[in-house]
């Protein structure tokens, strides 16, 4: 294989790079001029409605699908149009984790993990030791001789992750890796992937329809729509201030909204004795401040909480609340909340409560 100068990786070469990738099926566009990069050690979440192009993107990334035009670079090497023989060693740099685990039921846990080692080029005498190391890493040191049918869903996925890591990949691709698991098990798999990312500095790309998984796992997020990037950014930015309607729709269940009964009453010009409705977003330690008590104590403003919630984006707490304050105090409250260090505060209009 002849390498062009851009095929030779250096420390700043992204692990993944899509350059103007297009893919259509019988004239139906799945990916349209798609360009993005994923840096070493980064966790990238890809979200989008059904049919947005997520699977096609992942298949192009894994070398299972060839783009019509454009480049797909893994560690600087364009895999888009490589013949099969040259593609295989590059595919070994990619570990795949599937929704339904795809373990071989007739083989024990350790043999499932040894399977990819057999084609990895690792000296056969080391296979057992390496598989044991991986079982330790994923927290299943005692399950080596069990069969997949004897494991819970979460344990099967741990084996799936160990198998994906067997050949020391540069990139882990997770295709709906937690979608078949209950919330508690999902959380434990998220923690495992975070631990592996930190410990091995492993780059991870995940596609999922579970927004809470992206919120807790991803560093950056790409929102796909009709094969194009609708929005891309840091997970905190995307979840706290989604810009496009498509992102807002995808995150509906993640973002508290004003109750319909109040939304219906909103108007833009205040009447006497009206209340202003404020949408407040707090990030980090501000979330723990007693904002309503402080508004009363330090600014003599009486604010009522209409709706509110606290969750986490990665380790950062995010608080969202909807407050009602007397309309005359609206601007004063916005200034006070900004002084208190909230992330954003926006007046949604007025209601007569
Ligand atoms: N092999 C194929 N033949 C024909 N059309 C295809 C093929 N694969 C994908 N498509 C079409 O390309 C578009 C993108 O599909 P893709 O499966 O990538 O979307 P997705 O975001 O993964 O959807 P989902 O979340 O439902 O899995 C869809 O309109 C789909 O019908």
Automatic annotation (TrEMBL):
Q: Name one GO cellular component term.
A: plasma membrane
Looking at the keywords, is Cell membrane present? yes
Q: Which UniProt keywords apply?
A: Amino-acid transport, ATP-binding, Cell membrane, Membrane, Nucleotide-binding, Translocase, Transport
Claim: Transmembrane is one of the keywords in the record: no
Record-annotated membrane-spanning stretches: none
A single GO BP: amino acid transport
Q: Which InterPro entries match?
A: AAA+_ATPase, ABC_transporter-like_ATP-bd, ABC_transporter-like_CS, ACT-like_dom_sf, MetN_ABC_transporter-like, NIL_domain, P-loop_NTPase
What are the residue boundaries of the ABC transporter domain, all occurrences included? 16-251
Alphabetized GO MF terms: ATP binding; ATP hydrolysis activity
> What SUPFAM superfamilies does this protein's entry cite?
ACT-like, P-loop containing nucleoside triphosphate hydrolases
Task: List the Pfam families hit by this protein, alphabetically.
Answer: ABC_tran (PF00005), NIL (PF09383)
Q: Which PANTHER family match?
A: AMINO ACID IMPORT ATP-BINDING PROTEIN, METHIONINE IMPORT ATP-BINDING PROTEIN METN
Family assignment from sequence similarity = Belongs to the ABC transporter superfamily.
Q: What does this protein do?
A: Part of the ABC transporter FtsEX involved in cellular division. Important for assembly or stability of the septal ring.
Q: What is this protein called?
A: Cell division ATP-binding protein FtsE
Q: What organism is listed for this UniProt entry?
A: Commensalibacter intestini
